[in-house]
Backbone:
């Protein structure tokens, strides 16, 4: 189709492809308006038109109300919006062409809708071209493009546009503050909030929600309390958005009680409030309470969402309650949340931490879509179970899929290598992370490298790495070196590492214990006494070793010298018989693992009543043959228990899975999956 203007013929198709607006488009619009004045006089049945648009039936809406649209180009905005949910790029561009030919392009309202559509459906470059070609932009135009840059993850471009804006409104500031907290640049988010307030903009509930999330990310309790004071002063204390963010801030900062008070003051608790409370319990180590709240939430008629599931599944991970985890997995499927990445990732982690690696693999393989977070979760699961080769193989498959690994991916890989003795491969991956993927190592990465070097006996190299790394060392990295010193019996370096730890964290009981054990291994009982005296003087309490086992959906806790279990006498008798049976098959108690100056008989009794042995004895008494016995422990399994469990797995023909703070040990037929390297 062509049109003739002043004797010249123009192609409508060529006109539709241009972004600029000229006199021809304006003239075309006038022609359409003039030929439809009768229709324009009567208002269109907008209810039906808008209903078609909301259903995404753009063609039907346009064909049915073509005349009305030409008469009132603002109706294009409904058609444009309907392209966003289905990300209909082609339809959006066709509408763009019609808007140009109709002359509606000069309407800033319509053009802003076009800009918004391109930004939201991922056509950022087209949005930028459109923005630059607009005869005149306004605050709304800039806000839309800022949000487009944020959606694409380009915060620098968003910030540049923000700085260039001649005027800003509250929505502009809200977008920038929210983006900073979204991408964990929380300090910058708080700086934006401060500048905004100084310039006379008063925050709304959206602003306050973002700021409180920033405080939560920084665990900045003092700043959060100041915002809380403003909330009370400004009358936002009944806003659900603000209250939920406020409770989240307190709980993330460790003030669980304050967070609960805020939730209790909410007049009408919604799913978000329940999620905040459940997540707060889970994050602060109250996993059983989190599961109780989850059950209460469902009893009150609230339907859990993906956030709820992620929190309660992580609680099952911490408690290693595979039975409850499986029940929640069934509820996830029933709720239609089994394709949500955050839920799948939590399930992979849960099954892994419950000792069910095969179920983790199954969940991973059932996912139809490739996502770097899921691949990283599966790599982590392999590493935690000492399957370093499988973790590395999966990483190479991830590269073949052209998925971009993150710093978390490499953290999982380094962890896997350190627990399998793959020193050279681990150092190669560390170099790959820095040079090929240009990822800046964090303190956790350096801690894994120190662990990798220390376990393999390269203690001097490990200490040099700590002293030369560009980030400040913490107590954990020095504790990692101290643990390696214990393995390789390097008392001199152990003293140096312990001094650094106690300088950073004088109340760290594990460091005192490790140092005392190193001295005890060398029979330096005076040094052992000195360390223990220092603990008493500083009122440092040693964390007791606790093991637990799940039997018929109930958790049974065991601690050496604890007499509270109702079946302790029967367990004690069974354990005594079991130890005698082990000795007949060649087991010799490793009394060197008892770091106390006592006689051999006392040492043997002490060893026999370690918490993991009590838990295994109870498991053998109550768990049917053929079902694996899964034991969880809050500290590292000792050498004697590791040896004893190998004997038990062989003599009783049972699979025993033990999770300690370091990794999983799978015992079968007298062999452990760690290959005695842990």
Residues:
């Amino acid at each position: 189709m062509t049109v003739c203007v002043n004797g010249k013929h123009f192609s409508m198709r060529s006109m539709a492809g241009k972004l600029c607006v000229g006199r021809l488009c304006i003239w075309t619009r006038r022609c359409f308006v003039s030929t439809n004045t009768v229709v324009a006089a009567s208002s269109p049945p907008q209810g039906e038109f808008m209903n078609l648009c909301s259903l995404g039936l753009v063609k039907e809406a346009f064909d049915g109300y073509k005349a009305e649209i030409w008469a009132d180009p603002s109706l294009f905005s409904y058609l444009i919006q309907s392209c966003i949910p289905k990300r209909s790029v082609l339809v959006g561009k066709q509408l763009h062409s019609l808007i140009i030919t109709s002359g509606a392009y000069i309407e800033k309202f319509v053009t802003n809708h076009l800009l918004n559509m391109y930004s939201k459906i991922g056509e950022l470059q087209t949005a930028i071209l459109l923005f630059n070609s607009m005869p005149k932009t306004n605050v709304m135009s800039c806000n839309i493009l800022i949000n487009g840059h944020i959606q694409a993850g380009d915060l620098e471009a968003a910030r540049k546009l923000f700085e260039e804006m001649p005027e800003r409104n509250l929505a502009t500031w809200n977008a920038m503050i929210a983006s900073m907290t979204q991408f964990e640049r929380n300090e910058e988010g708080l700086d934006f909030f401060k500048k905004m307030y100084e310039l006379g903009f008063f925050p709304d509930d959206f602003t306050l929600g973002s700021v409180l999330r920033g405080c939560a990310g920084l665990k900045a309790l003092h700043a959060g309390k100041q915002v809380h004071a403003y909330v009370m002063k400004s009358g936002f204390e009944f806003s659900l958005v603000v209250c939920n963010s406020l409770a989240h801030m307190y709980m993330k900062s460790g003030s669980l009680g304050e967070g609960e008070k805020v939730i209790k003051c909410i007049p009408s608790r919604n799913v978000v409030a329940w999620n905040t409370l459940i997540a707060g319990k889970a994050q602060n180590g109250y996993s059983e309470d989190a599961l109780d709240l989850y059950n209460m939430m469902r009893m009150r008629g609230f339907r859990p969402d993906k956030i709820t599931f992620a929190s309660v599944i992580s609680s099952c991970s911490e408690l290693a309650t595979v039975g409850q985890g499986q029940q929640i997995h069934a509820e996830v499927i029933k709720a239609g949340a089994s394709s949500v990445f955050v839920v799948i990732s939590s399930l992979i982690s849960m099954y892994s931490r419950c000792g069910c690696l095969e179920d983790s693999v199954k969940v991973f393989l059932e996912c139809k879509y490739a996502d770097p977070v899921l691949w990283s979760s599966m790599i982590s699961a392999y590493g935690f179970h000492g399957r370093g080769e499988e973790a590395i193989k999966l990483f190479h498959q991830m590269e073949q899929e052209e998925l971009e690994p993150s710093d978390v991916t490499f953290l999982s890989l380094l962890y896997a290598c350190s627990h399998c003795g793959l020193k050279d491969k681990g150092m190669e991956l560390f170099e790959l992370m820095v040079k090929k993927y240009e990822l800046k190592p964090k303190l956790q990465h350096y801690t894994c490298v120190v662990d990798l070097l220390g376990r393999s006996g390269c203690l001097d190299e490990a200490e040099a790495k700590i002293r030369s790394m560009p980030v400040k060392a913490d107590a954990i990295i020095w504790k990692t070196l101290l643990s390696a010193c214990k393995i390789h019996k390097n008392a001199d370096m152990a003293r140096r590492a312990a001094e650094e730890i106690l300088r950073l964290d004088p109340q760290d009981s594990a460091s005192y214990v490790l140092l005392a054990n190193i001295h005890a291994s060398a029979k330096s009982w005076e040094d052992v006494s000195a360390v223990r005296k220092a603990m008493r003087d500083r009122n440092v309490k040693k964390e007791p070793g606790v093991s637990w086992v799940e039997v018929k959906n109930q958790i049974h806790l065991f601690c050496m010298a604890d007499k509270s279990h109702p079946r302790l006498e029967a367990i004690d008798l069974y354990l005594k018989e079991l130890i005698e049976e082990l000795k007949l098959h060649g087991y010799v108690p490793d009394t060197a693992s008892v770091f106390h100056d006592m006689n051999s008989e006392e040492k043997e009794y002490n060893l026999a009543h370690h918490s993991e042995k009590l838990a295994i004895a109870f498991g053998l008494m109550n768990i049917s043959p053929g079902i694996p016995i899964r034991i969880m422990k809050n500290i590292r399994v000792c050498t004697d228990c590791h040896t004893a469990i190998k004997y038990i797995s062989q003599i009783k023909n049972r699979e025993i899975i033990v999770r300690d703070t370091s990794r999983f040990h799978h015992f079968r037929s007298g062999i452990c999956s760690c290959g005695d390297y842990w």
User: Anything to note?
Assistant: The longest strand covers residues 546-551. Confidence is low (pLDDT under 50) at residues 1-44.
